[in-house]
Amino acid sequence: MRTDEQALFAALLQNPDSVLELEVTADDFSSADGARLFSAMQTIASRGAQLDGPTLSQELGDYRLVSDAMQAAGSPRNIQHYVESIQKASRLRQLNELCGHIAAATKATDADPDALTDRVMADLSQGSGVSKNTWAMSDVMADALQAITEAKETRRKGGTVGVSTGFSVLDKVMGGLRSGRLYVVGARPKMGKTSWALALQSNAARAGHNVGFASSEMSAQECGMRWLAAASGVSATSIQTGELSDADEMRVAKASNLLSEYPINVFDQAGVTPGRIRRQCLAWQRRYGLDLLVVDYLQRLKPDDDGERRDLTVGQMTRAFKNVARDLNIPVVLLVQLSRGVDQRDDRRPLPTDMRDSGEIEQEADVVSFIYRDSVYNEGADPNESEFLIRMNRHGETGRVRLHFDPKYQRWLDFDIAAHDWEVA
Q: Same structural domain for residues 38 and 145?
């Protein structure tokens, strides 16, 4: 048994009230005797019984082990120091064991490098195995009040509490995009969901946020052309065909210089898995910092476990992005393609049931919203008016936000703030 472990046991016998408060488990001890001794201490303490040498000996049926613990040198004042030392040694043993398993696994003829990498990243993110997310109610209240105070101060200064979408009314309704939350945005083709996602990213980046974009539908080059159209005021068609006047070229060059400074990173692999996107996010976070992830779009992704039923894989992939939001403490915006059933109704404004396997998606999402443009179906409708329909919101209201979309330039803006752009459902 390690010296720090013996010292901890001696200190706990002098101050038994702290046994159940320690962020250490029996698995963190280096020997079976240490694990048995600590488990027995916790068992006695959880019963409310007096923790002393005789009681511990009776619980263990091993006087020798308890006697050794009682004779060790250890001070109650150093309990936290002993715990930290034990945790560090435990983590090093875990890493050594993990390295051994990975080294052995890489020698298998059918070894999957992606699966092995996922395993390594998952194990490395576990820490010591002790939950750091347990809170006393007093701490919960203090943390909540602190968040409210910070939000109030941000509002007073005219800012957005979460990551700003760049759309005034949408930010006001949702409070920006909040860390740890999954935002699902669905639409039928031609509604402009990808261009909206690109606008969201440029708006967030312009506000100083580091953005990651996983594009499974469009290449980075195609995204770049759309960004240039929106920023330069030169039509997307002209940019794609190269039919540019001298003035157009100057505007595009100016927009390119501006956009090049934006902290956006694009990952454009088709048929990618959520696990691979997660690994890319971890790399971005370490190298640049990461404040927002946008994924375009769910149905274009490949599940990490391709052997499951479709409804189960949809749930699995959606859950994976919710976990990314929680684990990396960032908002995640996940785009979703809607079924053709929308087009068969008189009112074609989407509903959550228009998402294939919608129950699995709704279960994981914090906010479910849709993009709708009436002009796609009705020639007489305003071609620039778009509706952002918030259909499910675990943290606030549902309703409709009006936005302005210009297909020619792939540009999204506020519609008309004075025209009451927000309608509560």
A: no
